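Now for one specimen:
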Amino acid sequence: MMNLIADSGSTKTSWVLFSEDSSPLFIHTQGINPIHQDEETVKGILQKELMPQLSGRTIDEFFFYGSGVRPTEEALMQRLLQEVTGVSRVEAKSDLLGAARALCGHDEGLACILGTGSNSCLFDGHRIVMNTSPLGYILGDEGSGAVLGIKLLNALYKGMLPDTVLRDFEEEQGVTLADIINRVYRQPLANRYLASLSPFVHSHLHLSSISELVVNNFQEFIRRNVVPYGRRDLPLSAVGSVAFYYREQLQMAVEREGFVLGNIEQSPLQRLMSYHSLTRS
């Protein structure tokens, strides 16, 4: 059987086409989000970017996990995917369920997404049974790349970090405070800009003040989003670039908050391949 799996965010969708007797084919297209895009836009991306790369291959099952696929959008996305690809067996679910299936398989666990944004859930091995609303980067998204950018800028311009770090930042980024204010408050997609500051943070982790800033960001995420599930007995696993590149700091935060760190993955695709292969068998 030939399976197609998609892990979709607002900016990029990663796809993998695989079967037991062939090497997986990885494909990338722009992001698909039914909340921010209308039907014609979604169809256009599928028709122009995905279908040519599939080269007429026959697909038996199609699993789509997306950041904008809430329960109210599942039927819409399933219909659009079926219409364009011609695949009859299509499942469209949230990226959080995809993360939970990838990280926990069929076991109970605490599954988290730590990338540009953040999210978490209590997974019982079959479905999401609890979810703390992340609220977005203005009201929430603790632990995310966007909030990490906020914390960096706040510390830089409120004198919480050495002047040398501020000079390095402005020289490397080619910005002044006025530029930053303009970019955050007057330009679109401020969350992506804030998250784009993560490489600067990562390159300065040798400074205890920067490393602690990252740890504190994760601790706030755990306290406000994961602790309410009341399941310190379960491993805390996470998927996403922020979790992957700051694994050491995440480990420290998890231990400080009395949890045990589970699986950490940059992308859920490899584990989702295993999950759906096992589910099918």
Remarks:
- The CA atoms of residues 66 and 95 lie 5 Å apart.
- The first strand starts at residue 3 and ends at 8.
- The first helix runs from residue 39 to 54.
- The beta strands are 3-8, 12-19, 22-30, 61-66, 90-94, 109-114, 118-123, 128-130, 235-239, 260-265.
